[in-house]
């Protein structure tokens, strides 16, 4: 099931046009590997080695080959969400590994990095997990299968602390372990941080194929010190270039991915204070305490890691379209940008409804009733015609009453108007209910389609944006990973519904 990405709700139009060949804001032509890269310091290589060993990844040889410039470098990244975050995190990792494996089959050695966005401060995003109740063994009835269970922890509304170093709330861990009736895993041990929990889960699933980069690793920040100085020294020029680029993007009919603040400025850097909160940088800032924003994180990555290829989602592709003049201004070589694959997951039993009831998979991005109403054009049209005729006839009689009564009592005008409004409302409701009754007359079909919609478009959100991949991992383990790796497509203008 391969569906045009243009039918994916909310897809970035700039990215769709870019996939179609529009290179006004971002080149699509694959760039050759860099002929030469600046050397990596021993301090950075040793720190990456040590942190990955801490996570359970043993990649010393791969890191040293990368440091010597012997491999192609590819990078992707994501926030350190609880229990691995939503499905698109898995899609990013799968795209990265598919890229790596395909190139290595062609004799090209590759080092694949995954950037852990530990400096982000969106606690609500990382401390929320949505799981389909159908993935929980104790819930078998159809109605419960359609639920989306949300686990969430909250913190003080005024806190802007970076999330990577915060401990995972015990309440979240208790809920997850109880929900799936599993032994408490090591990556959810008491007091573990979001960073370590996420990283250790990834390490346990993917082994040594990925090298993880903690965005707050002190040695990484020290390597970025010259970049931070250059950003602050050229701030006026950067602000001007971003504003000019933003104007061109808007003139082309698109939106800027990152917009300026209320003062008309783009936020470039933060400083992390003693409490872990992000604030405006001071004159005495240290590189270890300097934090990037959505606009400058790619610059740090490209200046220090020097990737040949960056794999990102639509928002990240749009960041690069917005940032390209800044790469040039600061003398940073930009990587080739590739769009991650888009996949949705459907159990085979659920996915069968697509073929069985002759549905277009893209049609699931609406309610089950609306979808099935399209399959009953004659019946739906007849119900609407009858309802419309009845409404017109009844309103005509009310208007006749008005012509007779209004000359005698003008106070009836408002009541008659309200009566007509009520009649129109109730005829619309009657028509709506009749159509629902029509499409639900085949109860088996309606229940199957309802479950399909709830699986791929729960609560009117596309599945990969909100639903946890860990929920499916608990059921299918390595089979889930193998199926996603089989189906995921880099730089594709289609998305796939993967049956498991």
Highlighted features:
13 strands; globular; alpha/beta; single chain; five-stranded parallel beta sheet
Describe this structure in words.
By secondary structure, this protein is an alpha/beta fold. Helices cover 49% and strands 12% of the residues. It contains 21 helices and 13 strands. The chain has helices spanning 13-19, 42-55, 60-67, 87-105, 123-126, 142-145, 170-180, 194-206, 218-223, 225-233, 235-251, 297-304, 314-330, 348-356, 368-373, 377-405, 412-439, 443-456, 463-466, 469-476, 478-487; strands at residues 2-4, 72-78, 110-116, 128-132, 148-152, 211-214, 269-272, 278-279, 290-292, 309-312, 336-339, 343-346, 494-499. Strands 6-3-2-10-11 form a five-stranded parallel β-sheet. Helix 11 crosses helix 13. Residues 138-145 have low confidence and may be disordered.
């Amino acid at each position: 099931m391969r569906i045009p990405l243009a039918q994916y709700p909310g897809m970035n139009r700039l990215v769709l046009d870019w996939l179609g060949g529009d290179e006004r804001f971002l080149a699509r032509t694959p760039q050759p590997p860099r002929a030469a890269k600046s050397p990596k310091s021993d301090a950075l290589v040793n720190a990456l080695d040590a942190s990955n060993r801490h996570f359970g990844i043993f990649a010393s040889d791969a890191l040293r080959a990368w440091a010597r410039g012997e491999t192609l470098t590819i990078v992707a990244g994501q926030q350190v969400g609880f229990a691995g975050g939503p499905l698109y995190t898995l899609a990013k990792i799968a795209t990265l590994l598919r890229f790596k494996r395909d190139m290595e089959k062609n004799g090209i050695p590759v080092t694949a990095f995954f950037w852990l966005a530990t400096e982000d401060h969106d606690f609500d995003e990382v401390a929320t997990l949505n799981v389909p109740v159908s993935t929980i063994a104790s819930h078998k009835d159809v109605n419960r299968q359609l639920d989306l269970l949300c686990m969430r922890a909250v913190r003080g509304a005024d806190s802007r602390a970076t999330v990577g170093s915060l401990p995972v709330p015990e309440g979240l861990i208790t809920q997850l372990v109880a929900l799936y009736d599993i032994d408490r895993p090591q990556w959810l041990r008491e007091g573990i941080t979001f960073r370590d929990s996420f990283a250790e889960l990834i390490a346990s699933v993917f082994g040594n194929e990925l090298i993880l980069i903690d965005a707050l690793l002190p040695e990484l920040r020290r390597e970025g010190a010259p970049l931070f100085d250059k950003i602050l020294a050229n701030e006026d020029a950067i602000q001007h270039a971003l504003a000019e680029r933003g104007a061109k993007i808007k003139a082309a009919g698109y939106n800027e991915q990152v917009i300026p603040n209320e003062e008309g400025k783009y936020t470039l850097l933060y400083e992390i204070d003693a409490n872990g909160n992000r604030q405006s940088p001071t004159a005495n800032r240290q590189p270890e305490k300097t934090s990037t924003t959505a606009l400058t994180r790619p610059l740090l990555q490209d200046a220090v890691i020097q990737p040949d290829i960056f794999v990102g989602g639509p928002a990240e592709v749009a960041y690069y379209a917005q940032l390209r003049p800044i790469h040039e201004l600061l003398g940073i070589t930009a990587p080739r940008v590739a769009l991650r694959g888009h996949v949705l997951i459907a159990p085979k039993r659920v996915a069968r409804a697509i073929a069985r009831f002759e549905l277009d998979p893209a049609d699931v991005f609406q309610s089950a009733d609306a979808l099935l109403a399209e399959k009953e054009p004659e019946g739906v049209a007849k119900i609407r015609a009858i309802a419309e005729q009845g409404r017109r006839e009844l309103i005509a009689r009310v208007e006749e009453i008005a012509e007779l009564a209004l000359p005698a009592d003008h106070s009836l005008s408002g009541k008659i108007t309200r009566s007509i409004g009520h009649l129109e409302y109730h005829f619309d409701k009657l028509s709506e209910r009749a159509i629902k009754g029509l499409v639900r007359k085949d109860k088996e079909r309606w229940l199957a389609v309802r479950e399909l919609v709830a699986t791929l478009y729960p609560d009117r959100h596309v599945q990969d944006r909100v639903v946890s991949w860990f929920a499916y991992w608990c059921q299918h383990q390595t089979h889930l990973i193998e199926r996603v790796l089989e189906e995921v497509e880099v730089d594709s203008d289609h998305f796939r519904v993967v049956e498991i």
